[in-house]
Amino acid sequence: MTRHRFAFCGAQLAAVYVAADQDRELHLAELTGNRGVLYGLPAILAVAGHSPAANAFRSGRPLWLTPKELAAFIEEDPHHFPTRVRNGAPSSPARISLGALPLGHGDQELGCLVVAGDVGEGFSADDRSLLELYADQVAAGLESVAARFAGRRAPQAHLVQSLVPDQGGAFILDLGTGRMEAHAHVLELLGLSPEQFDGQVETLLACAVPDDMPALMAVVEPDRLAATGQQLAFRIRRPGGELRWLGLRCRVEVDPDGAPRRVLGVVADASYLRPSADEVSLVQRLSATLAGAATIREVSRLAVAALREPLGASRVAVGELEPERLIVTALDPPEPDAWPETWRAEWRSEWPDVSLGDLPTLQSALRAGHMSLWPPGAALEPGLLGVGPGGLAVLPLPAEGRMVGVCLVGWDEEHRFAPEERSLLTATAGLVGQALVRAHALDAGHELATMLQRSLLPRKLPELPGGIAVARYLPATAGLEVGGDWYDVIPLRDGHVAFVIGDVQGHSAGAATIMGQMRTAVRAYAVEGHPPDVVVARANRLLVGMETDLFATCTYVDLDMEEGIARVVRAGHLPPVVRHPDGVTEEMAVEGGPPLGVLAEAEFPMTETGLLPGTLLVLLTDGLVESARLPLEEGMRRVCETLAEVDPVDAGGVADELVMGVGRRDDDVALLLLRYDGTGGRPKRSHWTVWRLPKAVLHARRFTARTLRSWGVVEELDTALLIVSELVTNAIAHTQGEVGMDLTLSTDRLRIAVNDASPRSPVKPVSVSWESTGGRGLLIVEATATAWGSVPLSGGKQVWAEIPWHAPTG
User: Which residues form the GAF domain (predicted)?
Assistant: First the structure.
């Protein structure tokens, strides 16, 4: 190294001291620059001693000395400082300024950088800021050397690189004008001559590798700047074609109003980030294989395979970004219990899709646009901490100036990130991001159909009283088009819940569209209160009337969660599979009708059966049990055997076990599983047909009073009679046809429901004057009941109200 090579922001000499002897001493590891400025620096300094380097190392803060302060320091304690200054002239300190800057922060206290220069008035504020950034660059190089020696301090004789980047320079960017002042060393690093630089930041950015541009733009764009220091490793291609790693550290200055004003930055050679030969070959192989990947799934799978084993990672996940959601496209390991609960809660498909609102740290990393590394013990939300408790890398995937996805790499055991890993992750990010965009372009039709189907399936299943429902959906792996499998869980009145599974013929976006229409129709008919056979019959007539040649199959189960009575209708679909509490597993014997969309006036018989608490009810599509290599009978037998052997306590685990063995899939797979637990107590029910007589309300009140007294309802009786009077009066006065009243007493509430033949919902009056002779009924019901409402029924409606009830004690 040339003696006078080093010159940076007024400093003409630099010395690096590294911590040694368990941080009790500082050893001089490197001295570069014009040694005539300041020489005679001690080879060893005691950390407890009184010297600029020791003081800065102990305090963790830079120490700046003007010539006058330096002279006073030497006079105070000459034993810890050079005895000769600049050619031995005693008056020379009047021109020499010095800075001592600690290297590393917190647990990474590595040593101290000492700089000196012939600066009569001391280093300026800008020079100090830039030298502090330069010290961070030195620390990064020192950290990489320490990592190569497995955490031991590397002695000077073993250093394979200069600790002080001899090729480094500074720049100052004025955000108001967009002009940049770049020192000659910056231009030299980039391979530009001073004549080629026009003072515009775009000229320098043009030298960067395109894959690293998004992260660089995030640093220089004013609306994305932060007031704290930032660091970034990036690659440039010099005019001769040479690829070089550079390190960028910058600091943002703000005006009195807090708005960013200037960016001060330091660029230095970062050759220690250069990939090894093994890493280069790995990236080359990944680039070659990604070039032939035609689907999002294939790109994601290749990325996972390229990272997990070389990095020794415990988990790797790749996902695409959609508004407010992360759509996972591949992960390893594939078992749900290997991932955090936040992910498993929405594991409705082969992979989960996670709300970004549950992962604010991930959102922040994506906005920043560059790799984020989190060490063991980092304060992360559970959804990310569970991915990498021993260390986590969040790798945004850039392409075309935006973030198209993200890759998460996590370790269970404590993991420290080596520079070689950082370079591998950075190179992989650019390749995968570009490959994802290419796959989207090649696979636009498939992606559209997949997105359509995903949006038409329920995002979450409802919580059920007396049971737990889980679902799984796996798209076909053979072919690019998606199918029309669907499922739904529909809460109904009086503690009933409908469980539906179906399959539309074919694999296309059209099949997915018909699937969405059928799911919506079945849900609408079910909520209206129609019995199962009527729901399926109406859905059949709807599909027949559509302008399509497609047909659909369907199984519909209406289950009374309190009584355990299931009414099942099957339209050309597979029967449900039941695992009884004693472990016996069998196909449910259900009469079947034709598929939907074949015959307009087809009949769909209904089968009724009872379920005991502890029963597992499984609805499935044929993709799970039938393929070109698997006969249907064999597939159903395997499902029954698997279901008989599982632990029914974990409903999600049971669903995973059922779909785990499915390999290459010729068809989509949909699975809906219910663990029926029962509500713990069967409700009491009674029905009364209201005759249209002059004293109809009186008879309804008498029936209600007799029934409630027999049930032990005493304190709530007056409130119940008042509600009965108002609801029955409204039905008699405003509707025609039959009127019925249902009373239901559960463990904590009394429900009063009046059914009539009018489809019109009751309208609560906005105001009632003193002269009005009516219109107060619904206001009274609203004031006395904890909840009330109206639901459609077959050819009419039901108006209901609920009041709390507590069984008498003693």
Answer: 295-446
- In this structure, are strands 372-374 and 315-322 parallel, antiparallel, or unpaired? unpaired
Q: Cβ(493)–Cβ(791) under 8 Å?
A: yes
67-123 pLDDT, tens digit each = 888 888 877 766 655 544 444 444 445 688 999 999 876 566 789 999 999 888 889
Which two tokens mark 402?
Answer: 């935006």
Task: Please answer whether residues 153 and 19 qualify as being in contact, where contact means their C-beta atoms are separated by less than 8 angstroms.
Answer: yes
State both tokens at 156. 């000077």
Tokens of 237: 């291609």
pLDDT digits (tens, 9 = 90+) for 253-270: 888 887 778 888 888 877
Q: Which among 308, 318, 387, 388 is positioned nearest to 353, based on CA atoms?
A: 318
Q: Give dist(CA 525, CA 257) in Å, integer.
A: 60
Rounded-to-integer distance, Cα 290 and Cα 428, Å: 11
Specify the amino acid at residue 745: L
Of 417, 403, 413, 418, the C-alpha closest to 369 is 403
Residue with tokens 């959906």: 473
Could you tell me if 334 and 349 are in contact, meaning their C-beta atoms sit under 8 angstroms apart? no
Residue 15 and residue 163: Cα distance in Å, rounded? 9
d(CA 135, CA 767): 76
Q: Could you tell me what percentage of the chain is helix, strand and coil, using 3-state DSSP and rounding each to the nearest 5?
A: 35, 30, 35
Kindly report the pTM of this predicted structure: 0.48
> What 3-state DSSP class applies to 405?
strand
